[in-house]
Amino acid sequence: MFHKKNQIKLLILLKNAYRKHFRGYSNKEINLKMRVLNVAEKNDAAKNIAGHLSGGNLQRREGFSKFNKIYEFNHTFHGSPSTMIMTSVSGHLLGYEFQDAYRLWNSCSPLELFDIPVVKECPKDYINIKKTLVREVRTCNILVIWTDADREGENIGFEIINVCKEVNPRIQVYRALLSEITKQSVQRSMTNLGSPNKSISDAVDVRSELDLRIGAAFTRYQTMRLQKVFPEVLSKSLISYGSCQFPTLGFVVERYKDIQNFIPEQFWKIKVHHKIENIDVEFAWQRIRLFDEICCRVLYERCQENPTAFVLKVTKKPKSKWRPVPLDTIELEKAASRKLGINAKETMKIAEKLYSQGFISYPRTETNIFPKELNLSNLVQLHLEDNNWGDFAQRVLNNGPSPRQGKKSDQAHPPIHPTKYTHGLQDKERKVYEYVVRHFLACLSQDAEGEETIVNIEINGEKFLANGLRIIALNYLEVYPYDKWSNKQIHDYNQGQSFMPTGLEMIDGHTSAPNLLTEADLISLMDKHGIGTDATHAEHIETIKSRLYVGLENNKYFVPGELGIGLVEGYDNMGFEMSKPHLRAELEADLKKICEGTKAPSLVLREQIAKYKEVFIKTTEQVEKLDQSLGKYLRIQPVALQNNGQHQSMAIKNIRKCPACKKSTLVLKQKTNSPGFYVTCNGFPACRNTYWLPPSVIDAKVTDNVCSQCPGGIQLIQFQFSPRSMQPHYPDTYDGCINGCDSLLCEILQVDISTSRTSPSNTQSNNKNIITTNQNRDQVCCQCGDGAKLLTVTRETPNKGRQFYGCSKPISTPDRCNFFLWADGQFSGSTHTQLNNRTNNQNNNRHMNNSYRAKTQNNSGHGQRKCGLCKQAGHTRRNCPQS
């Protein structure tokens, strides 16, 4: 009985605690409550979406990132009461990068970047955002992706999904698609959740990986080379390459060269005037112009012989100025650049902010057709109270919205339009919002109407014509001041009438070169040739500006810089036309096929890498043409560099698997800022296993031959030693294995890569970290000729507890030698037995080895400094070979 009472009390306590935790919910809600994690692309979007779903009844709390808040509220999900957690990322959460071993520019040949592994990982700046997602998703059943409904948004969505599924593999995933952040749109999306589209995300992954590989390979190669070829002006310059930015630069250079190469040509024409009172009508020659002065003069003199003009025909017909079609991204960028004086990048930044705040629809769209289901009248009603365009909006409602439809649709988003009225915006935000509103109302209105009059006349056989315009109704022009249309007065002529011109003259002129490109012109060319997308045009233009490849004349016209035109001309001289849009346009076409599911991502990746790799190899073979072209425009004589297939000479071959990490491989590298070579793990900095070769090695390269003694396919290395630095009769050039089988070579080099080590063998331990023993003291002699002392490593390193031999003299003694030998016999490639054998049987060799050892160890000693970058001794951060 007592036991039963205790059970009842315990149940009551648990029930009360449970109800306290879920205070405000019914029993049914407590039993069925789900937790749903919602993730938007930006914090503003998350805030507004959460506000619409919760009706403003929500709680805000902090995540690990101070820029990405968490909004928690109650809602119904698929008919069940749920706790909704809404948060956000800040664009892409993950990004493609090379493995650590290849991130330093000198870590490998640029050519290798086309093939080496890449990883998709979270940048340091976004770790806190990732931590928030990981924490929140652990307790959730459902994940809803609210990122932008375009390619990039789909890819960001899958980045979020991958992070969340790492900690909660069973979570169910849904996709919400939005074109505008309004209450109706958000609620409609919530009730019509779908699934993420992997094909669209794959297209972005392919494009991102290609951009990394192609951009890094060409950027590293041309930067490292041109910094040496033009050290006076480019020694600190980053000379980047991108498969979109280069064709964009190419358009600017092509137009500039068209102007520079343009040869004006003189022409002549006849002009007729007829002035009555203040109206002067000019008649244009039907032949327009002639490039032969004598011919033109003959015709002119014939007109002078009988200058009376006869009216052959008078035509009057209706004339319309068409209202704009619904607004897409490209037209917004172009209009803002031309009419508002705001560049494309800033325009899109403002438009995205207005979208996140719910003022306009999604600004990245290729559609210029309003869908039938969009209630245009309701959108117009929002603006009836505005002082500037409210009356016009009322007339649109009275006549019924009648949009002039375009011809494009991306099947994802409607055209850009206002979704909420506001009058509190300032400066450029107000300008962009006002343009969107006025454009929207204009395209729903009527075309401007007028009457055009065309008069054809004849003077002694030569025909001329003039036209006039009378505007009848401005219509859309009343609300759209960005277009101009004005009356053009003309006299009242009648067919068969004759009159005497008040002016008849022959004038000359010259053909003129085309204008330099404006930003709007450049965007049009990029769109026409498939360079980038509506979402990336502004970014590519900004890149070539920031790299100083182009500049702006009068803050409006693009002019190529010396570096930009030199690069384009250099590559064009090689015959690749890398500044032309063909290569990138082919990729954009393939990406569309991936989105449609008609082409495999792996196939596109393989084909595109092969194309650009071939171009890269041919570039390195003809790179002197690039030097010459840049030298011409920089007005500097290029420094002569040996080419000899430079991409191959920098290539790094694997020697064997690293014995330390057992993941990466050992490679042979040359020191960056000083002569010398070393063998290191290409998993640096995760693995710091390094073997330093002595200064006597003046050249070394990994051969294609494999050691016949060692298992596992260990590559042989060809060494070239400085003259007279080796033992008698030892060759100056020698192919050998340093994996331990060639004991004499390993002893001379003090290297044995069959075992791991993280510091040079000649680094002596500090006396604080060793203890002494008396075991086997006189088995080995140091360089002083005395018996060596057996010591033990006590420092917290991989060698802790390992015994070694050192000089028996106190460390403070000035003539103390730097002798070092591991007691287990693995002295940088030789065993203890091998050393004793040489001591007993090869006295000359022992003498030479000891002399060599003394020479290579005389710079090591107590407390030797270590590099701050790679933590190895023997050099500093400034000349670190890993830098």
Reconstruct the topology from this structure.
Blueprint (H helix, E strand, L loop, with lengths): L1 H20 L5 H6 L1 E7 L2 H12 L4 E3 L8 E8 L2 E9 L6 E4 L19 E4 L5 H11 L4 E5 L4 H17 L4 E4 L7 H9 L6 H32 L1 H4 L10 H16 L5 E11 L2 E7 L7 H13 L3 E13 L7 H12 L3 H13 L19 H6 L8 H10 L27 H17 L4 E12 L2 E12 L24 E2 L3 E8 L8 H11 L7 H10 L3 E4 L3 E4 L1 H12 L8 H15 L4 H21 L2 H11 L11 H4 L4 E4 L7 E6 L6 E5 L8 E3 L4 E10 L8 E7 L11 E4 L6 H7 L20 E4 L15 E5 L9 E4 L13 E3 L9 H10 L1 H15 L26
Parallel strand pairs: 1-4, 1-7, 7-8
Antiparallel strand pairs: 2-3, 3-4, 5-6, 9-10, 9-15, 10-13, 11-12, 11-14, 12-13, 16-17, 18-19, 19-20, 20-21, 22-23, 23-24, 25-26, 26-27, 27-28
Helix pairs in contact: 4-5, 5-7, 7-19, 7-20, 9-17, 11-12, 11-16, 12-15, 12-17, 18-21
Protein described:
The structure is a single chain. This protein has 883 residues and is of the alpha+beta class. 36% of the residues lie in helices and 19% in strands. The chain contains 25 helices and 28 strands. Strands 14-11-12-13-10-9-15 form a 7-stranded antiparallel beta sheet, with helices on one face. The chain has a 6-stranded mixed beta sheet with strand order 2-3-4-1-7-8, with helices on both faces. Strand 7, helix 5 (151-167) and strand 8 form a beta-alpha-beta unit. Residues 24-31, 644-650, 758-779 and 826-863 have low confidence and may be disordered.
Short note summarizing the structure:
It is an enzyme of class 5 (isomerase). This protein has about 900 residues and is α+β, with helices and mostly antiparallel strands.
